[in-house]
Amino acid sequence: MDHDYIDFLNNLNWQDPKPGKITYNQWNDAFKLIPQSIRDSFFYLEGTKHATSYLNDPRCFAEMGGDSRLHSIEYDNSLASIRLWSFLLSEETRLFRAKDAGKKIIGTLKDLGTVPVLAYSSPDVVAFYPDGAWWIPCIMEMNEGLLKIADQVGFGEEVCPARAALAAFIKNAHFPRPDLLTGAVGSCCDDFSAIMQRIADTGIKMAWWELPYRRDFDLGEPFELLPSGRPVQKRFVDFVEGEMTTLKNAIEEVIGYKLTDDMITNGIIKANRSRELLSKIRDLVYGSVPSPFPALETQICEMLIIHFCSDQLETEKVLTHVLKTVEERVKNCEGVLPKESCRVVWVNPVADLRAMNVFERLGGAIAGSEYLFRHALLPIRTDISPLRALALQALSDPMIGPSTYRADIVCDDAVKYKAEGVVISNIPGASHCATEGSVIREMVTKKLGLPVLEITVSPLTDSGLGQLSTRFEAFFELIRKKRRETKYVHSWN
Fold first, then answer.
1. What's the rounded Cα separation, in Å, for the pair 11 and 428?
2. How many whole angstroms separate alpha carbon 156 and alpha carbon 419?
């Protein structure tokens, strides 16, 4: 983000309170203190007659939208946090407004971070992940009935919560009907492969593409390096580059004109700016003591990067605001958690957001993460053909290869951010969770000697909250015991 926007933030004439956690009602009270001039300065569809402020009264999300779960969540008390949440929770409205403004809506299924970069190369496209509907049952506390609809069409509790995306299509709710859906198949979890096929039956125009399984290869076989630095077979890169060409053709058919290499390269450059901002946020939040930003808000920042929350430019601005807030807190040695909190790498996103609040309230702090899409955080090359660069990006997906690849990511974060343990949050019904947890646990234990806690978090944890709390408390006591035994000296001493 350029210096002009930093100057804009510096001149907002707003002073955040001392860092801390606040309730929903306190959050609403804090919102009322924001001058109207500041609210009006944060908007989407910039430069069009549909430009609208998205910083609405947060109460409307719970009372008008039915997002009742928001009442039981704790929030960071900064203006950047209020803006982050408002941006996230207004996505549905923004998608419909974008459709009304004449934008082409492209839904991108499964790949988590690659196709949106290609789609946003066109100024006339808004891309989003229907997969994200898996959070709706939590946010609305089942009031929307999506999982019930999924049950009725044969996708019951044995299938992961992503089945809510299918129900959203059947119900024609929560997002406008896309002009095009893309679906990554091949190396895809069984659950979502079946869900995508059923979504295709609803009659939406589909563009299928294949992600091959990334595996070890024979000595002497030509290879190229992924953005992660790992080698991959050249023939795989050639193949996926061809798949990217197929996707480009499908998007061109929808928008009515060609996407040039320069347009796609510019799209990559814009995506890389947001990824660089997120990288700085992660390093400061996960690497600082006391933690300057909560786990839940940091996870949302990571989630924005996979499709820019349906507004690429505004995502860059929101992340810039968060980074500025975090930098100021680190500079002032201020945090939202006690400095003695147990530092943990978290694996997999939670179905119920409140679990992250409980984790922190009982003594935890996130010191690294692997939320299934770490390839979306890596910078994309700009020195080669843009479609080939996107192919390398897609092949970096941690979910399309052996679980040891994800385990290495977890170990790397644990070392980088000096974590004291690992929490693996298994997703109920998800086929990929059946064995990968044990692989990650074994590698973390063998390589680093760190304790590992495996939990399963359902879309609503109310009935299991006591058990979850007990397991967190026991895990943290194990970490503290290890501190005492090894005379562990923290960086804050």
1. 46
2. 37
Decide: 5 and 317 in contact? Cβ < 8 Å.
yes
Q: Which of 153-157, 223-227, 479-483 has the lowest mean pLDDT?
A: 153-157
For residue 70, the tally of other CB atoms under 10 A from its CB is 22
Instruction: Please give the pLDDT value at position 2.
Output: 67
- Helices 261-287 and 386-394 meet at what angle, rounded to 10? 40
CA distance 205 to 207: 7
HEC assignment per residue over the chain: CCHHHHHHHHCCCCCCCCCCEECHHHHHHHHHCCCHHHHCCCEECCCCCCCEECCCCCHHHHHCCCCHHHHHCCEECCHHHHHHHHHHHCHHHHHHHHHHCCCEEEEEECCCCCHHHHHCCCCCEEEECHHHHHHHHHHCCCCCCHHHHHHHCCCCCCCCCCHHHHHHHHHCCCCCCCCEEEEEEECCCHHHHHHHHHHHCCCCCEEEEEECCCCCCCCCCCEEECCCCCEEEHHHHHHHHHHHHHHHHHHHHHHCCCCCHHHHHHHHHHHHHHHHHHHHHHHHHHHCCCCCCCHHHHHHHHHHHHHHHHCHHHHHHHHHHHHHHHHHHHHCCCCCCCCCCEEEEEECCCCCCHHHHHHHHCCEEEEEEECCCHHHHCCCCCCCCHHHHHHHHHCCCHHHCCHHHHHHHHHHHHHHCCCCEEEEEECCCCCCHHHHHHHHHHHHHHHHCCCEEEEECCCCCHHHHHHHHHHHHHHHHHHHHHHHHHCCCCCCC
- For residues 292 and 367, the answer to whether their CB atoms sit within 8 Å is no
Q: Give the separation between CA 195 and CA 153, rounded to whole angstroms.
A: 11
Reported as a single tens digit per residue, the pLDDT across 287-339 is 999 999 999 999 999 999 999 998 999 999 999 999 999 999 999 999 999 99
Phi/psi at 454 (nearest 5 deg)? -105, 130
pLDDT surpasses 80 at 219: no
Start-to-end C-alpha separation, the chain: 35
Those residues whose C-beta lies under 8 Å from the C-beta of residue 270, and which sit 6 or more positions away, are 120, 312, 313, 316
Using CA atoms, how far apart are residues 76 and 215, in angstroms rounded to an integer? Answer: 41
Asked if residues 138 and 460 have their Cβ atoms less than 8 Å apart, the reply is yes
Please give the Cα distance from 269 to 121 (Å, whole number).
10
Q: Which residue has the tokens 């907002």?
A: 12
Q: How confident is the model at residue 178 (pLDDT cuts 50, 70, 90)?
A: very high
What is this structure's pTM?
A: 0.92
104, 180 contact by CB (below 8 A):
yes
**Whole-number pLDDT of residue 476:** 98
